[in-house]
Amino acid sequence: MSSVRFFFIFSILFLVGCAQPAKKEDEKTQDWSKDHSVSYHKEVNEREQLSISLYLEQHPALKKTIQTTESGLRYAIVQSNPKGALGRAGQTASLILNVGLLDGTSCYATESDVYDEIPIDRNDKESGLNEALKLMRTGERARLILPNHLAHGLVGDLANIPPLAILVLDVTLIEVR
């Protein structure tokens, strides 16, 4: 009799322990749809625009010279060189690059004795950087503001750049070849 009782109690405990917890009535499951995706991206874009506007308010000299491209890249030529060669797709750019966040956090910087070599439009760098290199002339310095869709997007770089980060790049284009 004791083995039957033990089996009965064990079976009850097993069934109770394996049962799925009941969902709370106020928990709602939401199907993700194209409309949700569009709405989410609009909200992210609005927050980014506000953050960039606040950043520019804190940097009035930059705000006066900043230009915006159709893609959303914001750039200002800080040091001009009208006689320099324009960067073109297919060329390799030698540059000095400092990458940071809007709050001033530094993510990456070119080493002082070496230039970064980037093939324009043939690399895995930020698409906003590729776009800017085609707007710059050799010898110019520029400050770029890249919204997340022109930088590292939803994931970041899994190291120093967080997801959905707006990047501020200081770029000096040394040469193109």
Model description:
- The chain is α+β, with helices and mostly antiparallel strands and 177 residues long.
- The protein is elongated, with a radius of gyration of 26 Å.
- The longest helix is centred in the N-terminal third of the chain and has 25 residues.
- It contains 4 helices and 7 strands.
- It has a domain of 110 residues: Roll (Chitinase A, domain 3).
- Strands 1, 2, 3, 4, 5, 6 and 7 form a 7-stranded antiparallel beta sheet that branches.
Helix content: 25-40%
Question: How is the CATH topology of the domain at 68-177 named?
Answer: Chitinase A, domain 3
Radius of gyration: 26 Å
The H-and-E topology, N to C, reads as HHHEEEEEHEE
Features:
177 residues, Chitinase A, domain 3, elongated
What is the compact description of this entry?
With 177 residues, this protein is α+β, with helices and mostly antiparallel strands.
